[in-house]
Design goal:
- It is a single chain.
- The protein is mostly beta strands.
- The protein has an 11-stranded antiparallel β-sheet. The protein has a two-stranded antiparallel sheet with strand order 1-2.
- The chain is globular.
Length: 173
């Protein structure tokens, strides 16, 4: 889906992949949903789904905006922006254009077997083999036999818990 280039590689891979929000405090400025002074990292043509709907073609643009990495998902005429900040804590959020603010994510899940990352259950799912393959290379044997990685966030967007495979409660999304 998106996360191929994150700056700080000292955090656990799952936390880097799917961690917490409050990007406004990181100095992120958006005008009409477009980041200012963002440096493109990559563009990926892939498949996405929204609210559990069937997958459809989409484009993911990863952009570096200083201390924040933005991932713009374009699905037809709909656009969803996910942002990740690692300073002072790893946080992840979704841009809400109606309120011009970042909303903390509740959860994120990576399914290695399908190269899929989902946010807030199935609110947004995207296939991104780029990132998940780099994660497999980085972690090597630590991910052997693993398939499901899941992170849940508190109301402030900070990581509450993360789990792997059978260690993940069936009700956590």
């Amino acid at each position: 889906m998106f996360l191929i280039l994150l700056r700080s590689m000292r955090r656990p891979p799952l936390v880097r992949l799917i961690a917490g929000t409050a990007l406004v405090s990181a100095g992120l400025l958006l005008i009409d949903g477009a980041p200012l002074h963002a440096e493109p990292l990559y563009t990926l043509s892939t498949l996405c789904s929204v609210a559990g709907s069937p997958s459809s073609p989409c484009t993911v643009e990863a952009m570096d905006q200083g201390s924040v990495t933005l991932y713009r998902h374009r699905i037809g005429n709909k656009e969803t922006v996910i942002g990740i900040s690692e300073d002072p804590y790893v946080r992840m959020g979704q841009w809400n254009p109606a309120t011009s603010s970042w909303q903390p994510l509740k959860s994120a899940t990576a399914r290695l077997s399908s190269n899929t990352v989902c946010f807030n259950g199935t609110d947004l799912c995207v296939v991104n083999p780029n990132y998940l393959n780099s994660l497999r290379q980085e972690k090597g044997a630590a991910l052997n036999g693993r398939d499901l990685l899941k992170v849940t966030f508190g109301s402030d967007g900070r990581v509450n818990a993360y789990c792997y495979d059978d260690g993940c409660p069936a009700t956590a999304s």
